[in-house]
Amino acid sequence: MNPIEYIYLLLIGQRKINYEDHSNVRLLFSNIYSLIASVIILGYGVANLLEGFILTAFLEIVSGVILFILFLFGRFSREFDMFIWIKIGVVIALMLYAFLTGGSQGTGFLWIYAFPVAIFAISSSFIGLFSTLFFFSLLGLFYFFNILGFLQLPYEREEIKTFFLSVSVVTLIVYIYKVLQENSFSALDAQRKQLEIAKLNFDAELTQKKDTEKELEESLSKLKEQNELLNNTKTAMLNLLEDVNKEKQKSQEQAADLKKFEETVENASDHIVFTDVEGKILYANSAVSKTTGYDRKDIIGKTPRLWGGQMSPDFYKEFWNTIKVKKQTYKGELTNRRKNGELYTAEVQAFPVLDESGQVKFFVGIERDITKAKEVDKLKSEFVSVASHQLRTPATGVKWYAELILEGKAGKLTKKQKEYITEMYQSNERMLALINDLLNVSRIETGSKFEIQFSSVDIIDLVKNMVQEINKLASEKDVKVIMVKPQIKKLLVEIDKEKIFQVIKNLIDNGVKYSPSKSKVMVEVQDNQDQFIISVKDTGIGIPKDQSERIFEKFFRADNVLKAETDGTGLGLYIVKAIVEGHYGKVWFESNEDKGTTFFVSLPKKHISKENRVIQA
Ligand code: ADP
User: Fold this and answer.
1) What residues form the membrane-spanning segments (predicted)?
2) Which residues, at least 6 apart from 502, have a Cβ–Cβ distance to it below 8 Å?
3) Which helix (H) or strand (E) holds 272?
4) Which long-range contacts (CB under 8 A, 24 or more apart) does 164-172 make?
5) pLDDT number for residue 600
6) What is the DSSP secondary-structure string of 543-604?
7) How far apart are CA 398 and CA 432, in angstroms?
8) Does 587 contact ligand 1 (Cβ within 6 A)?
9) pLDDT over 90 (residue 57)
């Protein structure tokens, strides 16, 4: 910073030069004027004081001090307009004093010349002009007073005129300069204002831009967040999609399984129907149409009565009671009628499908048309029947002749001959037993001649006699059959004596046959309200658990007896069951392998219908 700049800043009390702010220039002029004027006037004051012009010196020192104070105000307040009128007043007063007195050493005129410069320096053109005119009017007034002779002036009149003219010219010049300066200042101001406005606008734009930038940044970060969210959602969706795909695949597999299942059901040879709870058919496979002869469209929505209804009301009551009330599986045989009126026999299996709460959802009915199989069976049975009949006659012939020979009717036999004929007789007996069994089976199956003829029998007496008979015949095995002492002496029951005899005999024979020698077979008759129970207990080889269900099947013989190679046909228990059930009774057993078996037969004491009954398997 150069010294001039330093002084400039010192005078205006600023730290930095701002050339654009021209108010500083006015402040500078105003302060310079106040300072210089105060210094000069104080100087004059001191000089006049030394020369003994006390009054003049006093006025000058007071004016000088006031001007210096005004300088200080201007310097520190940095307001050039401050106390402007005081400054102007002091200047006017000083000038008037200089004019009137002629100034120190007759320099009054010179002082007056300084007036316009000083005034315009410290004020604006307008205030300067106004103040100058006011000053000139005062001067004119004094001049007028001088002409009138009231006032003594230290100048010649000519001098005053010249003075007025020259001062007016100086004033005019200074005024013009001032006006020009002010115009240029105001132009500069306007420019500066415009610049400021432009700057403001620019600033505003900048802030706006910044705001926009900020908003953009915010939007960007929001977008980023949203993007992230979208990405997360996308990942979640992809996962979901994967799950959905898996599920889809699963359900497709299930659907394929279901389809296979459906195809299997659809193409099954057995007739299958699904019905609702009321028995209305919801689904029927193709076999239903084949067996019944009805079109599928005629079947759906109907009940199986469409081809059924051929059995007794009791049968259907029992059927519905089993599947709907007891919610169990019904198994049985029944007769139905095809669309063409033809009757057919069906093996039926019907069961309910339950929901979680145990309520019936729907029923499934499976039927198998066994008409043909039955016919074949019947043919077989008839064949067996015919064959057995045919066989029985010669076998009976052999039996008689063997008996005659053994009785010695054909002459005395040697020991060897007797032995062989006895063997022959026993083999023939076994064959006859088999033929009888076969005949019974064929009778049961054809239902033709296996009639149960009820009559009143003392069952205790019957069993007692039978046990005695069996014990009389020498058993190869040395097994004793014992009847447990009954609680009552007599028990009259309505049964087919011969057939029940056959039942009990069969059970005792089995007990003896499947027991070790020297063991006992216990037979007991028990009275049980409207039933009576006959039990046959042995300590023999027992029945294997896994085969116990098949024991009453035709020709079935358990593995353990097959190994022991004991004689037998597997027909005895089949016939037993048929006879017992023909009596509306029940047969069952309890057995432990290698420990023994007990067979139970429970029969009603009284025959219900009093009519004879034909047994049919
Ligand atoms: P089988 O002529 O073979 O005795 P059954 O019909 O009388 O024919 O009996 C069928 C099967 O039941 C027998 O082969 C045997 O396996 C079994 N069985 C019957 N009774 C007994 C019993 N008391 N002890 C052990 N097994 C028996």
Assistant:
1) 27-46, 53-76, 82-100, 107-127, 133-151
2) 575, 576, 579
3) strand 271-275
4) 164/136, 164/139, 166/113, 167/112, 167/113, 167/115, 167/116, 167/136, 168/136, 170/113, 170/116, 170/117, 171/116, 171/132, 171/136
5) 98
6) --GGGGGGTTSTT---HHHHHHT----S-HHHHHHHHHHHTT-EEEEEEETTTEEEEEEEEE
7) 10
8) no
9) no
Q: Whose CA is nearest to atom 10 of ligand 1?
A: 570
DSSP 330: E
Compute, in angstroms, the gap from residue 614 CA to the centroid of ligand 1.
Answer: 25
Tell whether the model's pLDDT for residue 121 goes beyond 80.
Answer: no
Q: Whose CA is nearest to atom 20 of ligand 1?
A: 510
- 3-class state of residue 161 by DSSP: helix
CA of 63 to the centre of ligand 1 (A): 161
pLDDT at 145 over 80: yes
The helix (run of H) or strand (run of E) holding residue 235 is helix 157-267
Nearest atom in ligand 1 to 547's CA: 16
Higher pLDDT, 195 or 107: 195
Q: Maximum CA pair distance of the chain?
A: 225
Q: Which residue has the higher pLDDT, 604 or 258?
A: 604
Give Cα 500 distance to the centre of its chain. Answer: 68
Comparing CA positions, the residue from 531, 535, 574 lying closest to residue 551 is 574
Identity of residue 85: W
Question: d(Cα 480, Cα 102) in Å, to the nearest integer?
Answer: 187
Ligand 1 atom nearest the C-alpha of 536 is 23
Q: Ligand 1 centre from 538 Cα, in Å?
A: 12
Judge whether residue 34 has pLDDT over 60: yes
User: What's the rounded Cα separation, in Å, for the pair 127 and 137?
Assistant: 15
Do the beta carbons of residue 333 and residue 368 sit within 8 Å? no
**What pLDDT shows up at residue 613?**
63
Q: What's the 555 CA to ligand 1 centre distance in angstroms?
A: 10
Which token pair is 543? 């029945």
Q: Which atom of ligand 1 is nearest to the CA of 570?
A: 8
Ligand 1 center to 417 CA (angstroms): 34
Most informative mutation of 509, 555, 573 for ligand 1 (most atoms within 8 A of CB): 573
Q: State the Cα–Cα distance between residues 490 and 217, nearest whole angstrom.
A: 114
Among protein residues, the one with the nearest Cα to ligand 1's atom 14 is 557
**511 touches ligand 1 (CB under 6 Å):** yes
Please tell me the number of Cα atoms within 13 Å of 511 on its side-chain side. Answer: 29
Residues 540-561: tens digit of each pLDDT? 999 999 999 999 998 899 999 8
Q: Give the separation between CA 389 and CA 373, rounded to whole angstroms.
A: 24
Residue 8 CB burial class (10 angstroms; 0-12, 13-18, ≥19): middle
In one letter, which amino acid is 518? K
**Cα distance between residue 135 and residue 221, in whole Å:** 74
pLDDT in tens, 204-219: 888 888 888 888 899 8
What percentage of the chain reaches a pLDDT higher than 70? Answer: 94
- How many Cβ atoms are within 10 Å of 437's Cβ, its own excluded? 19
Q: Determine the distance from the C-alpha atom of residue 364 to the mean position of all C-alpha atoms in its chain, rounded to a whole number.
A: 34
DSSP 279: -
